[in-house]
Amino acid sequence: MKKLDVAIVGASGYAGGEFLRLALGHPHLNVTQVSSERYAKQPVHIVHPNLRGATKLRFSALKDLQDADLLVLGLPHKESSTRFDTFSRKAPRLLDLAADFRLKDPVVYEKYYGESHPRPDLPSRFVYANPELHREELRGAMYIAGAGCLATAAILGLYPLLKYAVPAKGDIIVEGKIGSSAAGNKPSESGHHPERAGVVRTYAATGHRHTAEITQELPGRFPVHLTATAVERVRGILVTAHVFLPDGYSDRDVLGAYREAYEDEPFIRLVTAKRGIHRVPDPKILDGTNFCDVGFEVDNETGRVVVMSALDNLVKGTAGHALQALNVSMGWPEQLGLNFTGLHP
Questions:
Q1: Disulfide-capable partner of 183 in 79, 82, 188, 338 (CB 3.0 to 4.6 Å)?
Q2: The one catalytic residue among 7, 71, 75, 149
């Protein structure tokens, strides 16, 4: 099989660098070029020391971008949409890791991003890169929009409940504990750097942009109240969500909903242990993996279901689900290049 030639634009960032790491181990991908304005002409391992010896590639400037079969765009917000015409001439397939093409409604985009979309004609041409919800749409897709990491954890945790049960009280409370890398590799609005992990701050108490993705993707239309808190980790997200179900729903009913939705999903693992110390999803054991672990507990007295979902924000939250979506679009085995199971202890 001829390999797919891939160029990664913005490969010095966390998202682009993680896709590069995964692509280098993928049997059907051939990374031909990686770009970075800041590190042009320097070897990849200057920025990504974990890739020392894995590749001889050097970063190139964007002006020197060559044609490829696929462009993976790991650029800051709005760069992909404002430069779409240039990028689409370089490759027939585009995979965007930023937020440019995630939201389909331009009114919602303007509400959450504070300005009109640079190219409102484009989002409808992109398929949202959540294979668990959009597998059929992804088959053969030429343009793929990577999903948000916090949104992915929340969506995968809540989707079965909202698909197979209607909340008795419409409001859904979602709290996400995130590692510092979820904000990118430069100072975030919280002041977080990966080198400074240890300071715990709430940096988006209300109006978090991923709220729009969660609302867009979940069945039904329920008010979602999302809070994100940075914790003492570089990688990882743990979402805790609260949903109230009608009287009569039991643990068995809730478990049945999750099994119905995820029984055949290769990257969703249900955490249902009643004994031991590993009874809830834990981001620590998911570092480097493309798994999302989901668990729950039902308060039978109140009808409240507490849903917990955990993932690595740079893999299943970003580059991994993007590669999984690419595998689906190309007709390759979905788990190709994504089989790492994590480490413990």
A1: 188
A2: 149
CB 171 within 8 A of CB 211: no
The CATH code belonging to domain 149-313 is: 3.30.360.10
Which among 136, 158, 131, 161 has a CA at the least distance from the CA of 146? 131
pLDDT at 189 over 50: no
d(CA 102, CA 126): 8
| Amino acid in the structure at residue 78 | K
For residue 205, the model assigns a pLDDT of: 57
The answer to whether 213 and 148 have CB atoms below 8 angstroms apart is: yes
Q: Which two tokens stand for residue 291?
A: 């798994």
Is the pTM higher than 0.70? yes
Contact status, residue 112 vs residue 209, Cβ threshold 8 Å = yes
Mind listing the pLDDT tens digit for each residue in 27-57?
999 999 999 999 999 999 999 999 999 999 9
287 sits in the region (left: phi over 0; alpha: psi -120 to 50; else beta) called beta
Distance CA 258, CA 15 (A): 29
Class at the top of the CATH hierarchy for domain 4-146+316-330:
alpha beta
Domain boundaries, the chain: 4-146+316-330, 149-313
DSSP state of 43: B
Number of C-beta neighbours around residue 286 at 10 A:
27
Task: Check residue 318 and report its DSSP letter.
Answer: I
**Is 292 a catalytic site residue?**
no
List, for residues 131-179, the tens digit of each pLDDT value.
999 999 999 999 999 999 999 999 999 999 999 877 877 799 999 999 8
| SS3 call for 6 | strand
